[in-house]
Design goal:
Blueprint (H helix, E strand, L loop, with lengths): L1 E5 L22 H5 L5 E4 L1 H4 L4 H10 L7 E5 L2 H5 L22 H16 L3 E7 L8 H13 L5 E4 L8 H10 L2 E6 L17 E6 L16 H6 L13 H6 L3 H4 L13 H9 L6 H16 L5 E6 L6 H14 L3 E3 L1 H6 L1 H4 L3 E3 L14
Parallel strand pairs: 1-8, 2-3, 3-4, 4-5, 5-6, 6-7, 7-8, 9-10
Helix pairs in contact: 3-5, 12-13
């Protein structure tokens, strides 16, 4: 089955772009979005493990959609070597990442995943690496250790450097039993170009947007210290500062939006640059070649499931593009959240119609 959905469900800029700027205090963005998509990628687990009760809450809140599956990002301790969440130094032993985790670290990740798997709601576990993670003996060792640690889980890896697309590297990923995340990203230098590779039964596609000007601005290209210690901020969420933030992005905690998938907030120049990285709306013409790649992935021998995630999440562009991709794949018109439809009407009108009624009625507390 091919499932399409956005990365994350609760961002400071979602109100007024994805759903109404003013909503009831117990409005639940996850419950609201679940009927529109068959998957959503969980962001918060990259920054810190979530307790089993949180996973149980997520599973209950998507009950209206029997086809819904979550994809979950693996904790950055395993991919980047950072140990802040354990209360230790920012980077353990130089940030090699290989062998730095403990049995307790693994338990903190898998006990939540077990809840989703038990509920039939787990689609994939994504290990996300930065562009600076290039093929060599050290990186292959880290991947092998991750594959061994999470053997039996539906694991895919996102590697952004072009050399990972070589036949020998794809064969390596097949041998260790992990899926390959195909990317649409700004192709700068040795960045991975668009592909349709499958290295196991799990197919994965991520859209990051094509904001060339700001893609490396505050991160891997302009921050060598971040590369050296192994810390990747490349998938941090958008955050706004100054007058615009206060007028267009109400405090999600104050108005009661679900913050369980909200990564750590940022402020100042870095926040602005982070937001700009994902400020990109794909056109139908840009998505069309990907529709063929995604269909090819789904038809690949041995592939059982494909997950397509739109990570260009600034001001709801990810959900808008996810609806377009799904409509193009299925060859039918879809229902769209009314506010999202109005926000991106010219892009969505050929593929969707606004819902006549919201999936979550005003005042409905959702399932917490």
């Amino acid at each position: 089955m091919i499932r399409v959905g956005p990365a994350g469900w609760s961002y400071p800029d979602s109100p007024g772009h994805v759903y109404a700027a003013s909503v009831p205090s117990r409005f639940d963005a996850l419950t609201f979005l679940a009927p529109y998509f068959d998957t959503i990628e969980v962001n918060s687990t990259f920054y810190r493990p979530q307790p089993p009760r949180t996973y149980a809450s997520w599973a209950k809140r998507v009950a209206a959609n029997p086809d819904f599956r979550f994809t979950v990002k693996l904790w950055q301790l395993f991919t980047h070597g950072t140990t802040e969440a354990r209360g230790e130094s920012r980077v353990a032993r130089g940030g090699s990442g290989a062998g730095e985790w403990t049995a307790d670290d693994v338990r903190m990740v898998t006990e939540g995943l077990e809840v989703l798997r038990g509920e039939g709601r787990l689609g994939a576990l994504l290990a996300q690496f930065p562009w600076s993670f290039k093929p060599d003996s050290r990186s292959r060792d880290r991947l092998m250790r991750i594959a061994e640690t999470f053997a039996g889980w539906p694991l895919a890896v996102e590697v952004r450097h072009a050399r990972w697309g070589r036949p020998e590297e794809l064969a390596f990923l097949r041998d260790i039993g992990v899926g390959f995340a195909n990317l649409d990203q700004p192709v700068i230098g040795q960045s991975l170009p668009p592909t349709a590779h499958a290295t196991g039964p799990l197919g994965y596609v991520r859209f990051h947007g094509r904001n060339y000007e700001h893609w490396f601005g505050e991160h891997e290209d302009a921050a060598p210290d971040a590369r050296r210690i192994g810390h990747d901020a490349s998938d941090a969420p958008p955050a706004r500062s100054g007058p615009t933030a206060s007028t267009t992005a109400p405090d999600v905690r104050r108005i009661g939006h679900d913050t369980s998938d909200a990564p750590p907030a940022r402020s100042g120049p870095t926040a602005s640059a982070t937001a700009q990285r994902y400020d990109y709306l794909y056109t139908a013409a840009e998505l069309a070649p990907w529709i063929e790649r995604i269909k090819a992935l789904g038809a690949t021998d041995g592939v059982t499931d494909v997950y397509v995630i739109t990570n260009n999440h600034f001001e709801g562009k990810g959900p808008a593009n996810a609806l377009m991709v799904r409509a193009m794949l299925e060859g039918r018109r879809l229902k769209a959240p009314p506010v999202l439809f109005e926000t991106y009407k010219s892009a969505l009108a050929p593929y969707a119609d606004p819902s006549e009624e919201p999936h979550q009625q005003p005042g409905d507390p959702g399932l917490f």
